[in-house]
Amino acid sequence: MLSSKSLSEFISDLSGKEVAPGGGSLGFLLISLGSSIILKTVRISQKLFFDQFMYEKYSNFLERFSQEFLLLADKDAQEYSEIVKYVKTDKELFNKKLYESILFLVDSTKRGLSFLSYLSELSGYIKDSVYSDLDCGRYAIVSGLLCLVRTAYANLKYLKSDDKSTINFELDTLKIKIDQIKYTF
Fold first, then answer.
1. Which domains does the chain have, with CATH numbers?
2. Model confidence pTM above 0.70
3. Closest CA to 182 of 138, 148, 150
């Protein structure tokens, strides 16, 4: 599992000859890393929070979100490794699993976008000395979301489905939303 590997091992896996982990797993890792550094800014800025409840709300949410997306990197790598097994042996099963994988990337991107909008209210609580870390975390998350969308686009060209144009439109819409958000920092 990727989540239990060192960063060095993860990098080695990314640069290896296997099809997974790939862009999806990298995207999930970037989102996890971005939310982790944002969690750090919240912890450093604890005294700026108006009450303990707000501090705990943000820190608990960020911790869960970071862990969730780290585990999704594992899920993505495992699922894609499974999908490629069927390329030559069972086209119907390959197509079904590829479809599910693309929808998984789309849904994960939506979740990440909602997380970014949730962060907008956080800015007022962060110390100036760590504000750059907050921005770096946001940029890592945006980069991760773009990786998820790009991976879904790449997989979409192999999909045999009547839903292909609908998914493509949804991906285009997500990309536009990500681009809009990335210019608001």
1. 22-182 (1.20.120.680)
2. yes
3. 138
Q: Which of 147, 143, 151 is nearest to 181 (CA)?
A: 143
Burial class (CB in 10 A: 0-12, 13-18, 19+), 50: exposed
Q: How far apart are CA 56 and CA 122, in angstroms?
A: 12
Q: How many degrees, rounded to 5, is the angle at CA 81 between CA 167 and CA 35?
A: 65
Owner of token pair 């998350």: 141
Q: 84-134 pLDDT, tens per residue?
A: 888 889 989 999 999 999 999 999 999 999 888 777 777 777 777 788 888
